[in-house]
């Protein structure tokens, strides 16, 4: 076996941790740039890790100098430096150790993709330009013009509409539902600058599709491979549950969702896995947003598609070693449900949920607990549980209803 390229990872949260879990048995080394005690480093020790922020240009250069390819577990990174290391390169010692030379380090997915996705407004403008379905949106003026601009948004979209931060948001932090003109003042005070308004989508359901994207060394798309579509439940704008298959959704809609997700991902640049979040409304799918990395909606692939979980897919895609023949993303179980473990009022609030989950499997149901080693804070994602069943998703849901009820109580 030849030496596998070393992957440098920006960000060592739970996604990075699960990426490292997938990498170890494949003999792949992952060097992580994040804090010393981040979840990824808790389970993966090596001398190549860099301690610091994934937003710090110097630290990104240092990581790049130690690796053969860079990838991300979070999109809020410095794409200027990523472009620099991919195009100009980083300084490294020459083979004889006497001088310095430049080494180019590819970034996957491309810094272009990460840059586009970082800005949710630009991301959707781009999708609309490419003929992909998105909700109508408009940029909100910065500074003093904001309230006038909100009035215009209200006259275009009606109430309620969604006000969103273009950059830096996650788990709904950065979204404000504007219900009436009385909300304008609070919205402006709470939301800062660089905002956009989006028409409210009265969706029946939210769907998501993970897609693996492969590309040759010249940046030409090789293939996009969709995972099965899942139903995602968001409460207070944060994902709480994921169901496979989506409940009461026709095959036609599922195929449409996979097709739209593949078209979205084909329009981007670079290798890796991507999540495409969508709304289902009147049998049409509308793209909400893209994540250029493994995603909460794909956690259940670890048990549902064990031959190629979203984390394995990220590794194989980034290293360009996806088996073109024989790759299947077909689930090995007929149903699966993922429940996020969100921190409750007290640091120990979720303990009873974990105890219950650990005792919840039976001959029809498997239950897998994943704790990330993060400090518990109210509403913070600190772990998840995946249940898989040998029957329908509705039967699985009723079998694990005590678990669902327990998590809902802790979150409340
Ligand atoms: P993530 O953690 O997924 O990155 P985020 O902070 O980027 O979240 P969004 O995905 O924009 O936030 O929105 C979070 C949730 O808010 C959506 O999944 C959906 O439930 C709701 N939402 C967002 N936009 C709209 C809309 N235009 N109409 C109705 N509901 C919406
Ligand atoms: Mg987002
Ligand atoms: Mg989202």
TrEMBL record:
EC number(s) for this protein? 4.1.1.21
Q: Does the keyword Heme apply?
A: no
State the pathway, as annotated in the record: Purine metabolism; IMP biosynthesis via de novo pathway; 5-amino-1-(5-phospho-D-ribosyl)imidazole-4-carboxylate from 5-amino-1-(5-phospho-D-ribosyl)imidazole (carboxylase route): step 1/1
A GO molecular function term, named singly, is: metal ion binding
Swiss-Prot/TrEMBL GO biological process terms: 'de novo' IMP biosynthetic process
Q: Where are the transmembrane segments?
A: none
Broad class of enzyme this protein falls into: lyase
Q: Name the reaction it catalyses.
A: 5-amino-1-(5-phospho-D-ribosyl)imidazole-4-carboxylate + H(+) = 5-amino-1-(5-phospho-beta-D-ribosyl)imidazole + CO2
Stated family: In the C-terminal section; belongs to the AIR carboxylase family. Class I subfamily.
Protein name, UniProt field: Phosphoribosylaminoimidazole carboxylase
Instruction: Give the organism, scientific name.
Output: Anthostomella pinea
**Classification lineage:** Eukaryota, Fungi, Dikarya, Ascomycota, Pezizomycotina
Instruction: Please state which portion of the whole protein this structure contains, as first and last residue out of the total length.
Output: 1 to 412 of 603
């Amino acid at each position: 076996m030849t030496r596998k390229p070393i992957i440098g990872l920006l960000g060592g949260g739970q996604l990075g941790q699960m990426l490292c879990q997938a990498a170890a048995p494949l003999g792949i080394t992952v060097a992580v740039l994040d804090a010393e005690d981040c979840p990824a480093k808790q389970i993966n020790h090596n001398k190549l890790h860099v301690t610091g922020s994934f937003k710090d240009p110097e630290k990104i250069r240092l990581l790049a100098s130690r690796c053969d390819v860079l990838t991300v577990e979070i999109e809020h990174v410095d794409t200027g430096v990523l472009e620099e290391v991919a195009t100009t390169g980083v300084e490294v010692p020459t083979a004889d150790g006497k001088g310095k030379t430049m080494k180019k380090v590819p970034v996957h997915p491309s810094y272009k993709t990460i840059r586009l996705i970082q800005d949710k407004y630009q991301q959707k403008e781009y999708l609309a330009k490419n003929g992909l379905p998105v909700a109508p949106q408009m940029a909100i003026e910065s500074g003093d013009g904001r309230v006038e601009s909100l009035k215009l948004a209200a006259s275009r979209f009606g109430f309620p509409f969604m006000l969103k931060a273009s950059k830096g948001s996650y788990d709904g932090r950065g979204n404000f539902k504007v219900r009436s003109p009385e909300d304008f003042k609070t919205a402006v005070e709470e939301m800062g600058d660089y905002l956009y308004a989006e028409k409210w989508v009265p969706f029946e359901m939210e769907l998501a599709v993970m897609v693996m994207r492969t590309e040759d060394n010249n940046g030409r798309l090789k293939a996009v491979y969709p995972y099965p579509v899942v139903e995602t439940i968001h409460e207070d704008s944060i994902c709480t549950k994921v169901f496979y298959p989506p409940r009461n959704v026709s095959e036609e809609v599922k195929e449409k969702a996979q097709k739209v997700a593949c078209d979205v991902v084909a329009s981007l640049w670079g290798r890796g896995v991507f999540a495409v979040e969508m709304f289902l409304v009147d049998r049409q799918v509308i793209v909400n947003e893209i994540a250029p990395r493994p995603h909460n909606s794909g956690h259940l692939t670890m048990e549902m598609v064990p031959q190629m979980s979203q984390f394995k897919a990220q590794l194989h895609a980034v290293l360009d070693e996806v088996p073109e023949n024989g790759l299947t993303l077909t689930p090995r179980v007929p149903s699966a449900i993922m429940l996020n473990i969100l921190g409750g009022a007290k640091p120990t609030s979720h303990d009873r949920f974990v105890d219950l989950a650990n005792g919840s499997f039976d001959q029809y149901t498997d239950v897998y607990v994943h704790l990330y080693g993060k400090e518990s804070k109210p509403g913070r994602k600190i772990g998840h549980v995946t249940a898989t069943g040998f029957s329908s998703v509705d039967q699985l849901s009723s079998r694990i209803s005590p678990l669902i009820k327990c998590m809902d109580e802790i979150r409340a």
